[in-house]
Amino acid sequence: MEIISMRQAEDFLDQEVIVKAWITNKRSSGKIAFLQLRDGQVYFQGIVLKNEVGEEVFELVKTLGQESSVELQGIVQADDRSNLGYELLIKSIKIIGESHEYPITPKEHGTDFLMDHRHLWLRSSKQHAIMQVRNEIIRATYQFFNDRSFIKIDPPILTGSAPEGTTELFHTKYFDEDAYLSQSGQLYMEAAAMAFGNVFSFGPTFRAEKSKTRRHLIEFWMMEPEMAYTDHEASLKVQEEYVAFLVRSVIDNCRLALETLERDINQLEKYCQLPYPRIEYTDAVKLLQDNGFDDIEWGEDFGSPHETFIANQNDQPVFIINWPKSIKPFYMKINPDNPETVLCADMIAPEGYGEIIGGSQRIDDYQTLAENIHKYGLDPEVYAWYLDLRQYGSVPHSGFGLGLERAVAWIAGIEHIREASPFPRLLNRLYP
User: In this protein, which residues make up the domain named Aminoacyl-transfer RNA synthetases class-II family profile (predicted)?
Assistant: First the structure.
């Protein structure tokens, strides 16, 4: 007899199978019991008929607590009332592990309680759906870049310098040297691009930023491609194609998860339409000032309200391009049309989710980069290897970074980024 996941149910219609699952809820009436079940991949219903299993087994089913694990033998049946489309008529049941007084019940719980029980909260239908969306975004990322002949390169997590030149770093000792947890793999990706042409990394990064907003995590995952012989315009095209590809993949492969999350799929369809609109930073400042945002001046960074207003002018993600060089990192190439700005862009997601991508064309000239390192007060010895890339066959190159959890939160339509990470690290949370 086949052991299956109920995700395979259509291939086993009217056949007897074995399914290993957990009980999420149950109810019984007279001679029939309804079990709400999950097998790790999908949620489904099992029906227990007293005259099919006998009185002893039927009474045993009534005693099973929430999250008890079971091995079920039964017949797959069509069920038009179920989102899955199938249910299991149970013939026999074997208890694998009992569960009593499960902490997370179907009632409402506070956020702190749920975060303290994150190891169990992941089992709930909504959290399960979010992780399915996350998994699909990761799978689709590999497909997108592998199909375009990018090579995956893994940058180090321990570094001796700050890629962004900031102080928001986790410091540690590396034997007798200072080291930091990486806040970006970009500089190493630039080295890899000079060796392989087109590369990408996908791994954890860290920001020691004392922020409690719904958009920030201390530890998060970044996807960072770097492309040799690629200017800013070509990079923007890759960025929008990549994001549209992610959204399309989730729509096509996570339909049940999106329905569980009550995500508006028609809205998501709009995000698959290219090209995405663009607005110059200078024009964005004027747009904000003309609409009552008196707190913003040219040369200042945008906050969440500013980003949300700009995004709300469109039905798609929007690029804010060519930012002031004074508020951007040292490695960005000057915009030849306006030397006070650099060739960069932030992609702002609709619906108030803020920046999901930051990217730029990099400085490819040795002298200019050396001057910037000095101007930004950075140690030339620490960045000597990075300068080497401009001495030995330098080429125009560009890259960007996408924050995985922000992309998950946006596509899944969840309010807080903490739910987009299986075990989020927040300002005052290191447990579980």
Answer: 133-432
